[in-house]
Every structure is written in structure tokens, then in C-alpha cells.
Amino acid sequence: MGTFTATCVTLAFFLQLISAQLERPILDRTGLTGEYDIDTHWTPERQTMSPLTTQPNGEPATEVNDPALTTALDEQLGLKLERTKGPIKTLVIQAVGRPGKN
Prior knowledge:
Layout: E1 3-10, H1 11-22, E2 35-41, H2 45-49, H3 69-77
Antiparallel strand pairs: 1-2
């Protein structure tokens, strides 16, 4: 949590992980292909919201030194996340039943 270090990974794979971390779909509009070495560090969203990481006055505790994920992506990797509308793949389950005897 809060760190991703890998060699020879595609941007698509990395963005899938980031999408899961943010709990939102991410559309890759970079046009970048190939494999990359990625090393980035951020403060997980849940950690920044935790009372254990804040001082009594509400200020962040001193042990939280890494930026938020969206800031880290911009500052460390040059990737900017922008809110937009676009097509996403969805799976719709209309019914569920027990399998029949074969």
C-alpha cells in the first residue's frame, strides 16, 4: 500500500492497479505503449483519513511524508488524472441459477 516499484510493466497494467486503489475506472488516453520501469510512493487515501495519522489539531502526523496518489502520479511520473465521461466496460448479470445436471 502506497508504494509501487516494478520493471518492464505496461502502463495498462499499472493503471489497472491504480484504478483498484482509487476504486474508480481509469481510461488510458496517453497513447503510450511498451514497458516501463515504475517507482512511485504515495500516502494511501485510507491512511490519510485515519485518526492514527493525524495530530489532535487535525494536522497530518509527521510520519505521513508521501503525497496523495493523484499528486504522486503527476509529480513523480508525469501522469495527470482528469475527471471525464467516457465509455467503460461493464458486466450485467440478469439472472443467477444453480447449474443443471449434466
